Known about the structure:
The complex is a heterodimer. Chain A is mainly β. Chain A has strands at 4-5, 10-14, 19-25, 30-38, 45-51, 56-59, 62-67, 72-77, 86-94, 102-103, 107-112. In chain A, strand 7 and strand 8 form a beta hairpin. The mean pLDDT of chain A is 94. Chain B has strands at 5-7, 10-13, 19-24, 31-37, 44-50, 53-57, 65-68, 75-79, 88-95, 105-106, 110-114. In chain B, strands 2, 4, 5, 6, 9, 10 and 11 form a seven-stranded mixed beta sheet that branches. A four-stranded antiparallel beta sheet of chain B has the order 1-3-8-7, with no helix packed on it. Chain B contains no helices and eleven strands. In chain B, 0% of the residues lie in helices and 49% in strands. Chain A binds chain B through residues 4, 9, 31-32, 34, 36, 41-46, 49, 51, 89, 91, 93-95, 98-106, and chain B through 4, 6, 31, 33, 35, 40-45, 48, 50, 55-56, 58, 91, 93, 95, 97, 100-101, 103-109.
Amino acid sequence: xxxxxxxxxxxxxxxxxxxxxxxxxxNSMFDYFLWYKxxxxxxxxxxxxxxxxxxxxxxxxxxxxxNKSAKHLSLHIVPSQPGDSAVYFCAASxxxxxxxxxxxxxxxxxxxx
Amino acid sequence: DTGVSQDxxxxxxxxxQNVTFRCDPISEHNRLYWYRQxxxxxxxxxxxxxxxxxxxxxxxxxxxxxxxxxxxxxxxxEIQRTEQGDSAMYLCASSPGGVKGTEAFFGQGTRLTVV
Lengths: 113, 115
């Protein structure tokens, strides 16, 4: 039962353009959502998060949007840079899941110079 | 370095052997987590400590797996009688706790290969 799903295994964009990574969830008890970035041979690095009481959170080039009715969130990176090339994981937590994070499968982002 | 530290980075073992991994969390963090990641998948939750108490354990976790966090500092994850299916990246993370859903900071992981 995949409660957090990232349907796009990969995404390729040109440097300077917008990258949009998508994530869907099924568990309506999730109320906190996070994005992590992972480079090869390293652990995931926290990027940005959003609480279910908000629909948008922005941090520099990164913005996360949450659509609770659709159980969908997205990460926008503007402008994209070659150094953003990595695997991006969406994660969620909630009251019934305690402190555990439930991760999606990840999306490999490649930003071409 | 004040990040989460894991040791060893890589471990190759023969099937049936026992292995133990160590995690040193960020010093002021009282929550510690173990996750497992296989190729093409996101990290999968294994277990969670608040200080020295193991508060949650995944139902998917075999009895061959055991974790400890004596004195609420570093943690160890032991796998007994390893199987080839145990081959994965084992990730440790820590968080300060206190705020629900607070971000977890991950170590670089221990890559286990069972041959």
